[in-house]
Amino acid sequence: MKDLSKGSSNLIKRFNQPPKSNKEGEDSNIFGMKNVHGDNNIRNLSLNELIEAPKEWNFYKALEDDKMMELIESIEKSGLLHPIVVWEQSDDEYMILAGHNRAKAFKYLSEMDNGHKYRKIPALIKKKDEISAEDAREIIIDTNWVQRTLSAIEKSKSIVEKYMVLQNKTGIKKNQDGQGQLRDIVAKDFEISGRSIDNYRKLDRLIPPLKTMLEDNSISVSAAVKLSGLTNEIQEFILDKYKDKIHRRYIKKINDKKTKEELIEIFEGEDEKYKVSFDVGERYKEIYQKMTNTERKLASKKIEKIIETIGIDRKNH
């Protein structure tokens, strides 16, 4: 787990620094979170008071078992380095916004310790009326982006959700001039280029089976981005017919203008090329040397046909 006190992330800077106020005295912090002075907003909460954020908000994978054990051992050895962040729902119920895995680690340790030492966990509490639902969603997105090593699909989902949150906050809708401004905000917050933002957003247009292949590293991000520009029908066609050929050699040649017939030609028209040599008479050598490139390609295809015919004859004997 990353130490949030290190690094120079824009998100962590804004999380830890006092918010600047505008002339109307409004909080300009993008998280909607005020700086904590002293321990005024931090206290120990019972694990029984915690509830998880909705799945559609917290869509991130749980830690793998080995990583969870590392976290548990770290807490046992060094204690909790950073409090979790929660949003008050009622007097005795708090939704976890940041620290789901830390809370799970505490629950595990509490069960192992018979509920004594780890029955409560330090939490930074955001009051019920202090932040909105959009602020809460943004905290989940931003803290996971900073703290976790995300898959390409999780990054894509994070960026898509971040756009939705910002659109709801600013009132800027798709295809409006402010879309460029939103992209700049997301790029700055996540410390990646605008082009990367665009590519990750495109991945959300992949059909589910291709998203799974990307998640499993069966296809590359660059191939996935190229495929995302195709219609669902064409994506399904390529997946059904050419699943084993979804790699750069073929994908680099496709675009959204290609017909199915042209795609078939791309995937089937060119087999892997091998150099072969055989002896010919001096006369044929001179003829070949005078051929154009087009004529040589035609001769090569005819030779392939001859080799194929010989191969078929051998199988039949």
**Order of strands across the main sheet:** 1-5-3-4-2
Q: Note the main sheet.
A: 5 strands, mixed
Order of helices and strands: HEEHEEHEHHHHHHHHHHH
**What's the number of domains?**
3
CATH level-1 class of the largest domain:
Alpha Beta
CATH architecture group name of the largest domain: Alpha-Beta Complex
The level of helicity is 40-55%
Main structural class = alpha/beta
What is the fold-level CATH name, i.e. the topology of the largest domain?
A: Conserved hypothetical protein from pyrococcus furiosus pfu- 392566-001, ParB domain
Average pLDDT reading? 82
Q: Given the C-alpha coordinates, what overall shape results? A: elongated
Q: What is the overall number of helices?
A: 14
Rg value: 29 Å
How many strands in all?
Answer: 5
Describe the fold and architecture.
This protein is an alpha/beta fold and 317 residues long. It contains 14 helices and 5 strands. It has 3 domains: 140 residues, Conserved hypothetical protein from pyrococcus furiosus pfu- 392566-001, ParB domain, CATH 3.90.1530; 63 residues, no CATH class; 35 residues, no CATH class. Helix content is 51%, strand content 9%. A 5-stranded mixed β-sheet has the order 1-5-3-4-2. β3 and β4 form a beta hairpin.
